[in-house]
Amino acid sequence: MLENNVEQVRNKIVTEFAKTIEMFDLTPLEARLFAYLYLSEKALTLDEMSDALGKSKTSMSNSIRSLYDMNLVTLVWKKGVRKDLYQSNSQLFKLFMTTYINKWIDATNHQKDALTELEHNLSEYRNKPGKNDEWDKLTKQLDDIMEFHKKLDSFFREMK
Amino acid sequence: MLENNVEQVRNKIVTEFAKTIEMFDLTPLEARLFAYLYLSEKALTLDEMSDALGKSKTSMSNSIRSLYDMNLVTLVWKKGVRKDLYQSNSQLFKLFMTTYINKWIDATNHQKDALTELEHNLSEYRNKPGKNDEWDKLTKQLDDIMEFHKKLDSFFREMK
DNA sequence: AAGATTGTACAGAATAAACTGTACAAAAAA
DNA sequence: TTTTTTGTACAGTTTATTCTGTACAATCTT
């Protein structure tokens, strides 16, 4: 009874910690998995995770892959162990922040490219006759939106 | 045919702009509504929005309410007009950033409170006999997580 | 006052996301 | 080689989210 308290409290911590992690655009399961891994400290196999979180192995495979791609988790090699072992990276703040900021920068640039494309379309049409005031207005607005994206980009770049 | 091009290009801009806005945790519809409103410049009624986006009036009511709560949109009064008129706020960057940053700060603090609560639980149990090394370990980990939240908090506070 | 109009609550329908179980390819063990 | 084990692809199911239509209270018009 008393010894269960350790597990109970640990679970509560996992739950709360996971809520925070979700804010970095991780799914609930990914977040919980990371939180659990973080408190476990040692490297775990897919089966152990599946067991611990009560979710299917497929789910674990997908979730751990996501975490791995985000660089939140590391694949660990251990002599004599055949299964893949994954371990959470430490340095929470730096880890999540750089991942998050990079995500913003990538997305922002992608959007900037798309808008640049539209700017070209727009300037082609503009040279044709008719409706020129409407085109002017639209050009001005697109500039404003572009400016917004530029600010976003440099804002997140300065964070790094 | 040519005159439709204005609408076509405008729609493409709305679509791309909306994608960016979604990154600030708005739903696709909320994002598209804001983008449309932004390009419209003038204030619009629920019916006009419903018409323009091809979505139900209920959806518009809900979405505009969200935008309003986030301070992204303003209720405008116009003489002789009975319906509610909503207009997008300008100053895109400042607008979205402050909303976003405040959201992070609020969430982070909420999480900090929850963790503090857990810290208290934990220290109560610790004084009882048995399993003290496990409690120590857990305490240490909770401290780390708390530290992470403090860093998050001050990080976003410095942005304002 | 009655009649009409406007915004939203609510319940259900449509759509999207998360999750599972089976099946199988790749790699290790026998 | 054959047999076993491990991770993942895929299709389908479950769960959650988004969206719609009806109904109605509040407000305006007559």
Automatic annotation (TrEMBL), chains A, B:
<keyword id="KW-0238">DNA-binding</keyword>
<keyword id="KW-0805">Transcription regulation</keyword>
<dbReference type="InterPro" id="IPR052362">
    <property type="entry name" value="HTH-GbsR_regulator"/>
</dbReference>
<protein>
    <recommendedName>
        <fullName>HTH-type transcriptional regulator</fullName>
    </recommendedName>
</protein>
<dbReference type="InterPro" id="IPR026282">
    <property type="entry name" value="MJ1563"/>
</dbReference>
<keyword id="KW-0804">Transcription</keyword>
<dbReference type="GO" id="GO:0003700">
    <property type="term" value="F:DNA-binding transcription factor activity"/>
</dbReference>
<dbReference type="GO" id="GO:0003677">
    <property type="term" value="F:DNA binding"/>
</dbReference>
<dbReference type="InterPro" id="IPR036388">
    <property type="entry name" value="WH-like_DNA-bd_sf"/>
</dbReference>
<comment type="similarity">
    <text>Belongs to the GbsR family.</text>
</comment>
<dbReference type="InterPro" id="IPR036390">
    <property type="entry name" value="WH_DNA-bd_sf"/>
</dbReference>
